[in-house]
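job 3f2a | input accepted
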Amino acid sequence: MLAFKYSIMACKYYMRLTMIFVSTVCFIFLSVPMSHAQAVTFITDAVEGELYTNTSHPELYCLAKNIYFEAKSEPVAGQYAVADVVLNRVQDSRFPNTICEVVYEGVMRESWKTKQHKDLPADQRIFHPVRHKCQFSWYCDGKSDKIKDSDSWRKCQEIAYRISREYRFRGMTEKATHYHATYVSPKWAPQLNLVGRIGTHIFYRWQ
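job 3f2a | predicted structure (207 res):
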């Protein structure tokens, strides 16, 4: 009889723990502002350090990756500026129409694995960027594109979300569509209008 009594007490105890846990989770999700909640995925789908995944928000993910690889060591203003250039290109008819297409724009070469099959459908063919022939150098510089700094990655994802969804600092580069680091002198720079410098990047726009 005593064992039965302890069993009932244990069940009640674990039921209370479960209710506390459920209530806490509900409170957290319901108390988060809608603008931020939309950027956060369910815990079961999230990767450590991520606010959202490539599956849940592919366009934001592309923008965040470009911020990360192009400007993760830049001040916050410099990171927003790089993101602003990408969004400016999306709105410019001389560039692709989506964020991901802008970020991954470059000269592509078909893989030998699919090129040898002449009857293979177009949607099954594999293409790789030609080295040093991309709009953003990180995509085809031959280095790994693996995210290693989770803190910087989370910050880049937040910036991508805020500038594209909340329009925070949107337009800060005054419609710039190009930029380069201060330690290089690309041939195209003299052909464009200089906007200014933010961090270690110099920004330009077409005339």
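job 3f2a | The longest strand covers residues 127-134.
job 3f2a | closed
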